[in-house]
Amino acid sequence: MKILITGANGFLGKKLSLRLLDQGHELYLLVRNRNRLNAFMDKEGEGYSRQIHILEGDVTEKNLGLNMELVKSLTGEIDAIYHGAALLSFDEKDRDRTYQVNVEGTKNVLEFSLEISCCKVFYISTAYTVGQETSGSETLYSMDRSFVNPYEASKCEAEHLVYGYSNKLETVILRPGIIIGDSKTGEADTNFGLYGFLKGVKILKKRADRRQGDKKCRIFLDPEVAQNFVPVDYVIEVLEAALFHSRNRDIFNITNPNPPRQSEILSIVKEILDFPQLQMHSLSSSDDMSNEEKAFYDSMSIFHSYFQRTIDFPTGHTERMLTSAGLPLLNMDREVLKRIIEGFLTDKARVPS
Question: For the whole prediction, is pTM greater than 0.90?
Answer without folding.
Answer: yes
